[in-house]
Amino acid sequence: MKPYVEVVAALIWKGDTFLICQRPKNKARGLLWEFVGGKVEKGETKEQALVRECKEELDIVVVPHEIFTEVVHEYPDITVHLTLYGCTLERGEPKRIEHNDMRWITPAEIADFAFCPADVEILEKLQREHRC
């Protein structure tokens, strides 16, 4: 049976742009784009996991707010339950610690990037709700 993993991610806006990160080449789904985040560890709330992941991966402090959306996606090797939170960037400027690259993009630019399959439904919702 495939592992089932709880994953959290941050939707961080700066003006009319939001932050996306490119996965490292050597990881599963390498060089695809995603929202910053990661696995929820045992004993953590989803919000605590999101704050920890943003600090570890980008050296920023975020404040999670409402859940923007949730999806369950089955990859060949893993099933993820992804919860995307709207977040406020409280402190710091994102630094590329773990990711190959990062960008601030508008919803109109989503098609220019190859995202992880789990994010497709989320990106469609973003485009519907934030028409440029």
Structural summary, described in words:
By secondary structure, this protein is an alpha+beta fold. It has a single domain, classed as Nucleoside Triphosphate Pyrophosphohydrolase (Alpha-Beta Complex). It has two helices and seven strands; from the N terminus they run ββββαβββα. It has helices at about 45-60, 120-130, and strands spanning about 5-15, 15-20, 35, 35-40, 60-75, 80-90, 100-105. Strands 1, 2, 3, 4, 5, 6 and 7 form a seven-stranded mixed β-sheet that branches. A hairpin with a 4-residue loop joins strand 5 (about 60-75) and strand 6 (about 80-90). The radius of gyration is 14 Å and the shape is globular.
Question: Structural class of the helices, strands and pairings?
Answer: alpha+beta
Could you please say which CATH topology applies here?
A: Nucleoside Triphosphate Pyrophosphohydrolase
Per DSSP, the total helix count is 2
Q: How does the major sheet shape up?
A: 7 strands, mixed
The percentage helix is 10-25%
* SSE order: EEEEHEEEH
List the helices and strands and how they pair.
Elements (H helix, E strand, L loop, with lengths): L3 E11 L2 E6 L10 E2 L2 E3 L6 H13 L2 E14 L4 E13 L9 E5 L14 H10 L3
Parallel strand pairs: 1-6
Antiparallel strand pairs: 1-2, 1-4, 2-3, 2-7, 5-6
